Amino acid sequence: TQIKPRKVLEKIKPYSPGKPIWELQEELKLDKVVKLASNENPQGPSPKGVAAISAGLADLHRYPDADTVSLKEAISKKLTVEKDQVIVTNGADELITLISEAFLDQGDEIIVPSPSFSEYDFGADLMGATVVPVPFDEGFQFNVERMIDAITDKTKLLYICSPNNPTGTYLAKAEFEKLLKAVPDHVLVVFDGAYSHYATAEDYTDGIEFVKAGYPILVLQTFSKVYGLAGLRVGFGVAPREVTQTILKVKEPFNVNSLAQAAAIAAINDDKHVEVSKESNATGAQTLYKEFSELGLSYVETMSNFVLVQLGPDAENIYQSLLEKGVIVRYGKIWGLPEYVRVTIGTEEENTFFIEKLKEVL
Ligand code: PMP
């Protein structure tokens, strides 16, 4: 065909998520496959969320609430922010795209600590903006000074993912405050707190307090992780009103389906499921640390629900051999970390299966 796509699309590579369980099962005729590749909640969905879906089935002939009023209310109550400071989207992924569409002109710059979540780059590429990666310090620690130095007149967005995907490291509150104070008026700070529920460090901030204090930041969260609703696609942002109103201009009216809205409203108040999920995650992290240490493997201490572990120059082969044995983890090459894999903390049984297979292939 002679129809030319937009020039900027030449840069965009197809997104490759972790292999689905069924695909590996079919490919290798495996009975058991354990997927620890997408940082999902191994405890399953919030039971309250699931119950709310059943109740919503009878109304499927209706369009969902375009303004997600009840869900915004539930979020604003939970986080004690104003309703118009909340925007709800079809997964946090959609929010990242919408932020990009709303704020990025061609030639603008975004600052992203590197390595981090790939969707930030996608949003910038889509709009013809330039990604300015800022490397981490030793041990994947954030370097705020380097981020401040990277700001130019063209900078529009500055991303902080804390805890960061794929490293599991976080930005301490005092450092974040230092960054916010140094950021000029023309830059929106996007704080990705997809994993913030898992962070237990005393000096961690989930960023919400800074929205309340009036800083120009947008905090992004998701129902895909601790709430266990990844399949429903619900995410949200909390930001000053001017920011949420700008993003609303590019949002499709019915972007969040009615079952997803109902489930999210129930899940955000399912404290028990959140607690159980956090506890199992903390125990799982300790198990993995212990096993990695015994195997002589270095790992990055995590504030999240995954661990980045260094397997050495043979990492790609080990990753492949694990696949053949029915364990799906994420190979680090996509983040420029060819000696690492990222493993989601699973249930006790899943962690044991992973370690057993790892020992076989090492
Ligand atoms: N931010 C980060 C850091 C993530 O890891 C993910 C999910 N992989 C998202 C955002 C997107 O989450 P959602 O499922 O809500 O699109």
UniProtKB/TrEMBL annotation:
Annotated pathway: Amino-acid biosynthesis; L-histidine biosynthesis; L-histidine from 5-phospho-alpha-D-ribose 1-diphosphate: step 7/9
Q: Which HAMAP family match?
A: HisC_aminotrans_2 (MF_01023)
Instruction: Give the organism the record lists.
Output: Oceanobacillus piezotolerans
Membrane-crossing residue ranges in chain numbering: none
> Which BP terms does GO give this entry?
L-histidine biosynthetic process
Which InterPro entries does the entry mention? Aminotransferase_I/II_large (IPR004839), HisP_aminotrans (IPR005861), HistidinolP_aminotransfase (IPR050106), PyrdxlP-dep_Trfase (IPR015424), PyrdxlP-dep_Trfase_major (IPR015421), PyrdxlP-dep_Trfase_small (IPR015422)
Q: This chain belongs to which protein, by name?
A: Histidinol-phosphate aminotransferase
Q: What is its EC number?
A: 2.6.1.9
Q: Read off the CDD domains from this record.
A: AAT_like (cd00609)
Query: One short Pfam family name for this protein?
Result: Aminotran_1_2
GO molecular-function terms, A-Z: histidinol-phosphate transaminase activity; pyridoxal phosphate binding
Question: Signal: present as a keyword of the record?
Answer: no
Q: How does it assemble?
A: Homodimer.
Q: What does the similarity note say?
A: Belongs to the class-II pyridoxal-phosphate-dependent aminotransferase family. Histidinol-phosphate aminotransferase subfamily.
